[in-house]
């Protein structure tokens, strides 16, 4: 996929959907916000949202822009549709992942657990682990606030994770859903996702998350991790 990162999309979906995604220090002033976020997502069984994505790549003057819709259903189902400027789709069903690029007539398919940078997101998507084992959260330096006047939150790895993106999130003050997620990777690139028209618990059907490979499309194994 030319502009997309499967690991990035997985991380966004997890932040958007899994309760208990972040851990605040005992005396952290943002703990109340964290608790409200967790309470909101704990009551969420499925979710639909529109998104816009702006990616600034270090060394390039023009940002890449795209838009689409994401569907998530517990446990372990994700459908991420890029609709603009071109159709691209990501389907996840527990450990199975399919990346479909109609323009190239290709489907990249494999096991998410064997793809680079995907183990922790997969565990969380399946409900096995929690992001609060990997990240802590605090107000970003300088105390900047989002459009709803709530502090912007910074997530950082608890241990290791030098190659993981730095994450900044903005919380909707009315619903306590995440309305914006910003990822800064170690190479200096920044991906900014803005979510809108968020709908929860609409009763999404399993069929929405099923992708059948067209006959004229080439199936390509996804790259896997080295070693066992």
Architecture overview:
This protein is mostly beta strands and 228 residues long. 14% of the residues lie in helices and 37% in strands. A twelve-stranded mixed sheet has the order 7-8-9-10-11-1-2-3-4-5-6-12, with helices on one face. Helix 1 packs parallel to helix 3 (119-125). The longest helix is centred in the first third of the chain and has 12 residues, at 6-17. The two termini are 26 Å apart.
Percentage of β-strand residues: 35-45%
What is the CATH top level name?
Mainly Beta
Count the beta strands.
12
Task: List the helices and strands in order.
Answer: HHEEEEEEHEEEEEE
Are there runs of 5+ residues with pLDDT below 50, and where? Answer: 118-131
CATH architecture annotation name: Clam
Mean pLDDT: 77
Number of domains: 1
Classify the fold: give the CATH topology: outer membrane lipoprotein receptor (LolB), chain A
Task: Work out the helicity level.
Answer: 10-25%
Helix/sheet category = mainly beta
What's the CATH superfamily, by name?
Lipoprotein localisation LolA/LolB/LppX
Give the number of helices. 3
Question: What topology, given as strand order, has the largest sheet?
Answer: 7-8-9-10-11-1-2-3-4-5-6-12
């Amino acid at each position: 996929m030319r502009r997309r990162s499967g690991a990035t999309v997985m991380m966004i979906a997890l932040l958007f959907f899994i309760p208990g995604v972040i851990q605040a220090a005992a005396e952290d002033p943002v703990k109340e916000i964290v608790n409200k976020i967790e309470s909101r997502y704990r009551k969420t069984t499925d979710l639909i949202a529109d998104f816009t994505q702006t990616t600034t790549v270090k060394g390039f003057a023009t940002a890449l822009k795209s838009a689409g819709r994401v569907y998530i259903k517990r446990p372990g189902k994700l459908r991420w549709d890029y609709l603009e400027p071109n159709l691209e789709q990501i389907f996840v069903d527990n450990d199975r992942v399919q990346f479909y690029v109609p323009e190239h007539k290709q489907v990249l398919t494999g096991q998410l657990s064997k793809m680079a940078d995907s183990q922790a997101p997969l565990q969380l998507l399946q409900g096995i682990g929690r992001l609060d084992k990997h990240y802590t959260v605090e107000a970003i330096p300088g105390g900047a606030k989002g459009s709803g006047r709530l502090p912007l939150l910074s997530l950082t790895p608890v241990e290791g994770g030098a190659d993981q993106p730095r994450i900044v999130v903005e919380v909707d003050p009315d619903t306590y859903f995440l309305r914006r997620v910003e990822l800064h990777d170690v190479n200096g690139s920044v991906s900014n996702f803005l979510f809108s028209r968020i709908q929860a618990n609409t009763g999404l059907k399993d069929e929405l998350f099923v992708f059948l490979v067209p006959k004229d499309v080439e199936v390509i194994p996804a790259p896997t991790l080295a070693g066992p």
